[in-house]
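Bug #77: duplicate submission created two jobs. Keeping one. Sequence:
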Amino acid sequence: MTAEFLVIDTPSGRVRAAAQPLTGDAIVYTLAGALRGSVHVTGTHHPCRWDQFTALRVSLGSVNAMEACAPAESLPRRRGGATGYTGSLVWWFDGAGADRPQAEVSVSPFDSPAGRAPSARTGESLALVMRRCAEDAAHRPALPRLLAAAREREAPRLLRFLTWSAGRGAAEADRYERQARDLRRNSRNAVAIWWTVAGWLTALPHPVLVLLLMDYRGSLARRACLLPGYAERTEEMACDERERVGRLRAAISSLRGQLRSLRRGRRPAVR
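Kept job's structure:
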């Protein structure tokens, strides 16, 4: 069971957060006591697994901070203060849902419309209130509706972004692989030239040939020594990028499946 009023003891004093009836795809908490204003809770995707909608975004004000600016009068402020603050928090859990004993939290920096950060005490109070609102929303019966609404709202634009990112990542991996091949080829050429010069020196000793064989910055010896390492590192970067693109494509496939399910769910039955 969840209380209609949350009582939160903060460094700024006691705060009461009243949950309003669910409207649309958000739960809005109205603050009273040491802090005044409102807190807006919506569903969102997991920050690391973008095709999984198992997180809550908490925004200061009456709207989603990722989409629009909140009205100034709704921004939380200290009792008697005139400065309201913006900021957001993401509270996420794995597929087991809100029953997990621990959840992960990421808090964005707080700010005011005038660009002034809150004091340490006020910032700590805001973060505590946001976290408690997230925990409360995660245990409400409306949670599945919040996450389903997030999937319908965010999946299309996530799909567009991930498709673009996967295409760019594949091109970047191709570029790294071309660089690695060039480095390998240049390394082989440097070694071959070094041994050719060494043969000349054996046949006809000369100070210039000795200079060509010495190890110094930009020399054949230095290139022959360093280029294989550069090539190996570039190949690792290409491999890492390929793995990232693979994860993105898996998320793209999952999101497309979810969108197909949503469309089938909205399609009227054929009589």
